[in-house]
Write a structure and sequence with these properties.
This protein is an alpha+beta fold. The protein has 20 helices and 24 strands. Helices cover 28% and strands 20% of the residues.
Length: 685
């Protein structure tokens, strides 16, 4: 088995071999290579990918050199070709809460306001005529009322005309749908004063109805109608006046930021109802409560006002967008000052699902893709081929002095507002196929295995943060000591954190489960989404470290397709999930809420007593108006986090992106995910 201090090298070594053989004249030498073998096996009736670590002797190329540059420009300047892993979970804007689906939604649909190009704080109007302020009368003095004048003459792709009632319906439908795996908690707090994340809170103080459609449908119809009427009172449309008014429950500073994202993208009410979505009747809304992506009428279809239409989506293969030639923007209404207008320059956008890095890399080298998803550990293969280095926020580019004729552009100055972490499930769902025998017998784990703090502390102290940083993040990561990212209000740079300490890890495992683990052992699976080699390597680091302590400590790494992974994590079936978070709005609340009481806390089945301790501080932090008070609350919360350790927090890192040099118009804004295809064009230098 590979020495644990070098375990993070295993994927990079094999990838460099592939690069060298493909792009260089060989200078052969015999070396010992450790690599990961991925096998598809059938377990509990479904195929899964399981990895093994093997060491073998291979002939490799000793010193790779950059490939000769591809000459000329794009194959077709109107076609964007992108290769990545993962695909949308849903195209329903009220449900979508992951980046791949969000990338489609944000290019096909539009919200009332959008960020002003690269600014993380300023907004410009989109489907609203102007951004409301207190000065223009759009925001009341007490900060509780926001009124938007809705733009006229805008048509949806399917032919409907945008009207204020479409806007009100969009938000009302989302709030009432209130799916626990979606983004509606972001709107329930400011609009309804609900902190539990469920629309039924007013009639369900104990949370017994949350996420249970059958239970909600069986509730008192009068009470259910009252919930709906309260939602309709919070968002009021006036078609005659051309306005929509939001009546907030509490002042909410980041309200414009919240509604500018994909869950604020506007639906055509009449079209949605024709597809089988909620009909707008307060007597029936419960029939559409918490549908999940698999039951939403809008999961596989989309109709917006944006610059692109969905041409088709072939699950497992690709999605394709086509420019909407009737797009409403003109020279008088550019996306931002000096920004694009009229129909999109890129007429076709092709997003191909390519899990294997070597294939994505080869396509970039051959000029067969404008953009490829590059995991941090693969940057060492891209960097020697970079010809220009560009600032992602200013667009300014400079030749790479080491290789000015290189193939690619590298965009830097993309501050990391996302992070990959380790999420153990406290109480795994009964019937999970990922727990082996389901018993503490050496061939599985009991469902409450990670409810033991010592087991969670073993995960934290057995993880080799240095290897992960050096070999995956290329030494550019910054450790975080809790959910809040470094540099943000509420992050305590002096806060305690767990360090890599195999002796401490062994001691925690000896103390766990009444001392039974060293003699009995265990076996469980750590899951990641197929193609995400960063997350795969995280699992392999833990796999190797635990095995080095005791061969009876068996961890298997498990690759699952993205939709399967999401479904299993949402169902609390995964013993340990390696997943990530990208902030929705740049505020500490958007980190502590999903980690501790919302998205991930729910998926991990964090016990109610512990979640209540978190919730008290989470709610206090978001409601406090004084920054110093907020900071101390978050300091206290992160101290509680360290004491109870619900997750293993890893490292934050800036995330450079790579494109072909014929790509123009790419930009980045803090918190942005995906790509703004409307702003881009292709042209040879």
């Amino acid at each position: 088995m590979l020495n644990r201090k070098k375990l993070g090298l295993m994927m990079g070594l094999l990838a460099v071999v592939i690069l060298a053989l493909a792009a260089c004249q060989p200078q052969s030498q015999v070396v010992e290579v450790t690599r990961v073998v991925t096998e598809t096996v059938v377990g509990e009736g479904q195929p899964v990918e399981v990895t093994r670590i093997v060491t073998e002797v291979q002939e490799v190329v000793a010193t790779p050199t950059a490939a000769a540059p591809v000459t000329g420009g794009p194959e077709d300047p109107t076609v964007w070709r992108e290769v990545s892993f993962g695909e949308p979970d849903t195209l329903d804007p009220a449900l979508g809460y992951e980046t791949t689906g969000g990338n489609v939604i944000q290019n096909v649909m539009e919200p009332l306001v959008i960020y002003d190009h690269v600014s993380p704080t300023d907004f410009v109007p989109a489907l609203a005529l102007e951004v409301p302020t207190q000065d223009n009368g759009g925001i009341s003095e007490d900060g509780l009322t926001y009124t938007f004048q809705i733009r006229e003459g805008v048509t949806f792709h399917a032919g409907g005309t945008l009207e204020p009632h479409d806007v009100a319906y969009t938000f009302q439908r989302g709030l009432l749908q209130s799916d626990p795996n979606g983004p509606q908690w972001l709107l329930l707090e400011p609009l309804m004063g609900i902190t539990s994340g469920d629309i039924n809170e007013s009639i369900d103080a104990e949370g017994l109805l949350a996420g249970d459609p059958a239970a909600v449908q069986a509730a008192d119809p009068t009470q259910l109608a009252g919930i709906c009427e309260a939602v309709k009172a919070a968002i009021v449309a006036d078609d005659a006046a051309g306005t929509v008014t939001f009546n907030l429950a509490v002042p909410w500073g980041p309200f414009l930021a919240t509604i500018s994202q994909t869950w604020g993208m506007i639906l055509d009410q009449e079209w949605a109802v024709e597809q089988g979505a909620w009909d707008g009747d307060c007597a029936t809304w419960q029939n559409w409560y918490a549908p999940g992506a698999e039951n939403s009428e809008l999961t596989n279809i989309i109709n917006g006002t944006g610059p692109y239409k969905l041409d088709h989506w072939t699950p497992g293969e690709e999605f394709v967008l086509a420019a909407y030639e009737g797009y409403w923007r003109t020279e008088e209404t550019p996306k931002w000052e000096g920004g694009p207008f009229g129909p999109a320059a890129l007429k076709t956008v092709i997003y191909s699902i390519v899990d294997e890095w070597g294939t994505r890399f080869s396509m970039m080298q051959a000029g067969d893709a404008e953009f490829a998803q590059v995991n941090p550990e693969h940057e060492i293969q891209m960097d020697p081929m970079v010809g220009e280095i560009c600032d992602a926020q200013t667009g300014a580019c400079e030749p790479n002095p080491e290789n000015p004729e290189g193939l690619f552009r590298k965009y830097v100055n993309r501050p990391g507002v996302n992070r990959t972490d380790i999420f153990p499930t406290f109480i795994i769902a009964d019937g999970s196929p990922y727990v082996g025998s389901g018993q503490l017998d050496g061939n599985g784990i009991p469902l409450d295995f990670f409810n033991d703090l010592n087991v969670r502390q073993a995960l934290a102290t057995c993880f080799n943060y240095g290897v992960y940083n050096d070999e995956v993040l290329l030494g550019q990561g910054v450790r975080n000591n809790g959910p809040i990212i470094s540099g943000m209000l509420g992050y305590n740079p002096d806060g305690a954190m767990y360090d890599y300490d195999p002796a401490a890890c062994a001691a925690h495992l000896e103390a766990a489960w009444d001392g039974a683990l060293p003699e009995t052992g265990f076996r469980f699976q750590i899951a990641f989404n197929t193609g995400n080699t960063t997350r795969q390597t995280i699992g392999e680091i833990l796999q190797g470290e635990f095995a080095a302590l005791n061969p009876l400590y068996q961890i298997e790494t498990l690759g699952l397709p993205w939709p399967t992974f999401l479904a299993a994590q949402r169902a609390s079936q995964l013993p340990v999930a390696v997943n990530g978070w990208q902030e929705d709005i740049h505020d500490p609340h958007n980190w502590v809420q999903p980690y501790l009481v919302g998205t991930y806390g729910a998926r991990q089945n964090i016990p109610a007593e512990l979640m209540d301790q978190y919730r008290e501080l989470v709610n206090a932090g978001v409601l406090a108006s004084d920054p110093a008070e907020r900071e101390q609350i978050y300091f206290d919360l992160q101290a509680l986090f360290h004491e109870t350790l619900p997750q293993v927090i890893l490292l934050q890192r800036d995330a450079p992106w790579y494109t072909q040099r014929w790509v123009n118009g790419y930009y980045y804004r803090v918190g942005m995910f995906g790509r703004d295809y409307y702003a881009m064009s292709l042209a040879a230098e």
